[in-house]
Amino acid sequence: MNIVIPDDYQDVIRTLDCYSQLAGHDVRVLHDLGPASADELAARFAEADALVLTRERTRIDAALLDRLPRLKLISQTGKVSGHLDLDACTERGIVVTEGRGSPVAPAELAWALILTARRQLVPAIEAFKAGQWQVNLGHALAGQTLGIWGYGKIGQRLARYAQAFDMPVLVWGSDNSRAAAIADGHQAAASRAAFFAEADILSLNLRLSESTRHGVTFADLAGMKPSALLVNISRAELIAPGALLQALDAGRPGYAAVDVFEQEPLLAADNDLLKHPRALCTPHLGYVEKNGYELYFGDAFDNVVAFFGGAPKNVANPQALANRRA
């Protein structure tokens, strides 16, 4: 079968151990950067019997699907999200399979950002390379309150890391999230305003949905301490457009560490957030890690082999099986 794997930015997928699962298939791995037009995507995917998507890097909508008459399968790395029109796939008999996620690499990156931002490592290292010695003063984590909005798998790992660093944990989120945090020995914020006001480091760990999109406002951020750090490794769209930059310029919070952007890949070197002296920015590295890739693509490739072997599994739209394309 003809399998297309788009958005391999680093050209690493063929180096994975799990890539051998696709032996015997005609596989084309694409490394294009930047947003592609509908015409470009239709041309790239024209001969594909199956697509293996790298998380949410490519949007698949009904209009694009109508231009891909050969397509039978979309194998998603991780879980299906808003980048993929699942109903449109079902209507056209295109089967969608999904795999698992892991909180390990994203949580570790979040902690790396927290440590790097709090100890001001990047400006210290850059100055050191320029011949300067000890140009700034960082802050230890012990005693600082870690605020976690979203006490799921990643949030829970961050809370355990915080305990190892002698940091109290303050949680905001759903009733269930707050109750789970209390059961684990942490504090639940008395209110949303108190959560933003009391956290020294505030980490957003929410799924992006219509209810959470642009849910963090400038008013929320303006209620943070001037010394506070806002961390976002989840989705840029959790924050209202322009609100974080506006808040940094206003001095509340004083610092930000972000791994996600509304436009990805972000290739504009003159981006205001990238240039901000109190913002630490990384190019969406949360899940970009060897073991995580082996998990994500191992599942996706296994689902491809099972589908074309006549035994589909992990199907997200089982209704499509009844009228799947031959």
Structure description:
- It holds the Pfam family 2-Hacid_dh_C.
- Residues 112-286 form the D-isomer specific 2-hydroxyacid dehydrogenase NAD-binding domain.
- One of its GO terms (molecular function) is NAD binding.
- Keywords: NAD, Oxidoreductase.
- Residues 23-316 form the D-isomer specific 2-hydroxyacid dehydrogenase catalytic domain.
- There is one protein chain.
- It contains twelve helices and twelve strands.
- The radius of gyration is 22 Å and the shape is globular.
- The protein is 33% helix and 13% strand.
- The strands form two sheets. Strands 8-7-6-9-10-11-12 form a seven-stranded parallel β-sheet, sandwiched between helices. Strands 2-1-3-4-5 form a five-stranded parallel β-sheet.
- The chain is of the alpha/beta class and 326 residues long.
Spatial ordering of strands, largest sheet: 8-7-6-9-10-11-12
Structural class: alpha/beta
Number of helices: 12
Based on CA atoms alone, the radius of gyration comes out at 22 Å
Query: What is the end-to-end distance?
Result: 12 Å
Q: Report the sheet-strand fraction.
A: 5-15%
Shape: globular
Mean pLDDT: 96
Low-confidence stretches: none
- Helix amount: 25-40%
Report the strand count. 12
Largest sheet report = 7 strands, parallel
The secondary-structure element order is: EEHEHEHEHHEHEHEHEHEHEHEH
